[in-house]
Design a protein that fits this description.
The complex is a heterodimer of chains A (439) and B (300).
Chain A: H1 8-31, E1 50-56, H2 64-80, E2 84-90, H3 97-106, E3 113-117, H4 121-126, H5 134-139, H6 150-153, E4 157-158, E5 161-162, E6 165-171, E7 173-177, H7 178-183, H8 195-205, E8 207-208, E9 214-218, H9 224-232, H10 251-265, H11 272-278, E10 288-293, H12 298-303, E11 308-311, E12 322-331, H13 338-348, H14 351-357, E13 364-365, H15 368-373, H16 378-386, E14 390-391, H17 401-416, H18 422-437
Parallel strand pairs in A: 1-2, 1-3, 9-10, 12-14
Antiparallel strand pairs in A: 3-12, 4-5, 6-12, 6-13, 7-10, 7-11, 8-9
Chain B: H1 3-36, E1 39-40, E2 48-49, H2 53-60, H3 62-93, H4 100-108, H5 115-126, H6 132-139, H7 158-172, H8 174-186, H9 190-198, H10 203-214, H11 216-231, H12 235-241, H13 252-261, H14 266-299
Antiparallel strand pairs in B: 1-2
Classes of the chains: A alpha/beta (439), B mainly alpha (300).
């Protein structure tokens, strides 16, 4: 209580302090987390907008046109859901998305929706970070699972539980420089070709150029996702399907490694040091005739006006195999607006949005209708032809696969640099992978 | 309250922001990291107390042992180079020459620049074909190994990647080390040099018998801080080599980062951090003891 003798100025100052404190408290309350609820419970613009947090790996490095498109889609969603604001949380940085996204989840501050690279989806799914979308799918008559490529949808499925809906994908294929094939009089490859046919073509396409530079039959990138299919196409693998043990030391896998080591030894493909020494992308520079890659590189090849062809991977098996790399949309288990998050996932994976998103050429839409829209292009057709042969990347199924991939890369470095034979390197890598997988 | 008590209180009040900062952002995280190191702690799974098992596992882990070896090799190469280079540059910019202030500033620029941006510059310096060092080698028609003069892939060859980072480390920290040496040089009375000169001492003799002994405490400080910095070297490794080729640049600080943010094994990463702390402490104490003994011998 204020004493009766208190000067008026002091009383006014005290009142001002109380008012400032109340304002501060109100401001702080405004900064706090809003209550759980979805658009349906909000009465439009009268209340503070519901913020739907969406994390993806876009960033300033992305094509500005693509970022503008992303913004337009976000605004379209907001118009369809009055009272909702979509907040895109872009996590740039090569190889940092998973760790930063996991940290957001572990620290109790998860986004509602998260874009997943399916080749590392198991880390999120197996650690309980994602919401099972099956109940949403079951009661939503406007969503049709059959509208998606089944093997792409299956990447994020565990039993009956579906943890994500795919946005877009690419199978790994063999891209070749048609000009170099014609110049050397080599027949263009056809789907279903064998390793011996591939090697014969590589031999014809490899030579010492008059300027002293080496012309390679095939390019090689020592990144496990780029070469793991060589193991598969010889009935080998890096790790077992259940992810409990290494398979890199199996006879089939070692034979595949010997095949690759021999290509490097015979200078039909560059070693990692040789590729680094060249200082350029050998395929884009026209110094390697063939390259195993995915759809995303078509953007650069088109800019370079390379005359390319696309063919399935050569195989020693009756039916060739490839891997599918995909991105998906998932809802985090602790999402504050799960219903709204599902609506956003459905919106982003819809044929209409997908048709615009994949127009950049980065990938093939996992939505069949959107993919069909571009299917008249012969290169697109070639990619679509490979899709039925595409298996899940092990990282979609095995949470610790990332560590095995890194060990695989080191193993390949040892082999191609001549520091170890394929047998020695594979046995050593298998021991290390087993130690990791059984931790 | 007594006058002394009041001064004490004022002293504590003045020191309290820094003390609180250290408590909150250094000592408390250290304690938490110590507690984490005793747990099997994956980022998304409940932690399980495992006692000292993480430490025992690390002693058996060939990759961690390799990283420790790489870090020690890196320190053994980079600390002498960093210290000698900084002393040489400090001696140069201590000369009363016109425009020497510009050089002092230029040498300090790397210290106030983004290490990530500088890493990009060094990638170009080490590039095959078009890089500065390969260009210089080509001008001199020098070959490294079997490579053509312009073809050495410094950052991809196991033999050259670590020395390349050593060079970069010596350059990155040159400015602060130079400034400390410069302060040391300025504090040496000119009369000592003059009297040594009058006694017929050459420039080298004056440097060896006057400057170096009087720079002892400065050298000790620079050597210890450079050793600590070399064992914590991270950004250029992350930006340029990522521990490769063939793990030759997998230094402990980068190894810890990978353990935590590639494998998400936070408990193991915390144990590695504590072992790194022990390593830094041991080396710093050994240096202090050795250099103090040398100083005492010289003064005697």
């Amino acid at each position: 209580m204020r004493p009766a003798t208190e000067p008026e100025g002091v009383g006014r100052a005290a009142s001002q302090r109380v008012a400032i404190c109340l304002c501060g408290a109100a401001l702080l309350a405004g900064c706090g987390r809003e209550g759980r609820g979805d658009a349906a419970s909000a009465s439009g613009a009268e209340r503070a907008p519901i913020v739907l947090r969406v994390a993806n790996w876009s960033g300033p490095a992305n094509d500005s046109g693509f970022l503008a498109l992303e913004r337009a889609h976000r605004e379209q969603f907001e118009r369809a859901h009055p009272g909702v604001r979509v907040e895109l949380e872009q996590i740039p940085g090569l190889g940092q998305f998973e760790s930063k996204a996991l940290l957001m989840i572990a620290s109790g501050n998860p986004p509602d929706v998260i874009q997943l690279d399916c080749s590392s989806a198991a880390v999120f799914i197996d650690n309980g970070a994602l919401l099972d979308l099956t109940p949403f799918i079951a009661r939503d008559s406007t969503f049709d699972e059959a509208g998606f490529f089944e093997n792409v949808l299956a990447l994020t499925r565990r039993g009956d539980a579906q943890f994500a809906v795919p946005l877009d994908f690419t199978p790994m294929v063999l891209v070749y420089n048609r000009r170099l094939f014609h110049e050397r009089g080599v027949n263009e490859p056809r789907d279903g070709w064998s390793w011996s046919e591939f090697r014969a073509a590589a031999e014809q396409l490899s030579f010492q150029r008059p300027d002293g530079a080496r012309q390679y039959g095939v390019n090689f990138v020592n990144w496990t996702p780029f070469w793991v299919t060589w193991l598969w196409n010889n009935a080998g693998a890096l790790v077992s399907d259940d992810g409990r043990s290494a398979r890199i030391d199996s006879p089939a896998a070692i034979a595949a490694l010997e095949f690759l080591a021999d290509l490097a030894r015979c200078k039909l493909m560059p070693t990692p040091t040789g590729a680094a020494t060249a200082g350029v992308d050998l395929f884009r520079a026209g110094r390697a005739a063939m390259h195993v890659t995915g759809h995303w590189e078509l953007i650069e090849y088109r800019l370079d006006q390379l005359d390319i062809g696309v063919v399935g991977l050569p195989s020693n098996l009756p039916q060739r195999q490839t891997v599918v790399y995909a991105s998906s949309m998932a809802v985090t288990r602790a999402a504050r607006h799960p219903e709204l998050a599902w609506e956003f996932v459905k919106f982003q994976t819809s044929a209409e949005v997908q048709r615009a998103r994949v127009a950049t050429g980065v990938a093939i839409s996992a939505n069949r209708a959107a993919a069909a829209y571009y299917a008249n292009d012969p290169l697109e057709q070639a990619f679509l032809r490979e899709t039925p042969f595409a298996r899940a990347p092990s990282g979609a199924l095995v949470a610790r696969y990332g560590v095995c991939e890194e060990l695989g890369r080191e193993m390949m470095e040892d082999i191609l640099s001549g520091a170890a034979t394929p047998l020695e390197a594979a046995r050593r890598a298998a021991g290390l992978m087993n130690a990791e997988l059984q931790r | 309250m007594t006058r002394g008590g009041g001064e004490n209180l004022r002293g504590w009040l003045l020191a309290s922001p820094a003390t609180l900062y250290l408590l909150a952002f250094s000592f408390l995280p250290m304690l938490i990291a110590g507690w984490m190191s005793l747990h099997d702690w994956h980022l998304l799974r409940p932690q399980v107390f495992v006692g000292l098992r993480n430490y025992a596992d690390l002693l058996e882990n060939p990759f961690f042992r390799g990283a420790v070896w790489n870090s020690l090799t890196f320190a053994a190469l980079s600390v002498p180079l960093g210290v000698v280079l900084a002393l040489a540059v400090a001696a140069l910019v201590n000369q009363p020459l016109p425009g020497v202030g510009v050089f002092r500033t230029l040498y300090f620029v790397p210290a106030v620049s983004s290490q990530a941006a500088l890493a990009m510059v060094w990638i170009w310096i080490f590039l095959p074909q078009t890089g500065l060092i390969n260009w210089l080698l080509a001008q001199l028609n020098l070959r490294l190994g079997t490579s053509a003069p312009t073809d050495t892939a410094f950052l991809s060859e196991p033999a050259y990647a670590l020395p390349a980072l050593v060079l970069m480390f010596a350059w990155l920290g040159l400015g602060p080390r130079m400034v400390i040496f410069l302060a040391g040089l300025k504090s040496i009375p000119v009369e000592l040099h003059e009297s040594a000169g009058l006694d017929g001492a050459s420039a080298w003799q004056r440097f060896r018998h006057v400057t170096l002994p009087l720079l002892g405490p400065t050298t000790l400080f620079v050597a210890v801080t450079t050793t600590i910095a070399s064992l914590q070297f991270f950004t250029p490794v992350y930006m340029i080599t990522r521990g490769g080729p063939r793990r030759t640049t997998d230094l402990v600080a980068y190894h810890i980062y990978n353990e935590a943010w590639t494998k998400f094994e936070l408990g193991m990463a915390a144990a590695q951090s504590y072992l790194l702390l022990a390593m830094i402490l041991a080396l710093a104490l050994a240096q202090l003891w050795l250099l103090r003994r040398n100083l005492a011998e010289e003064q005697a």
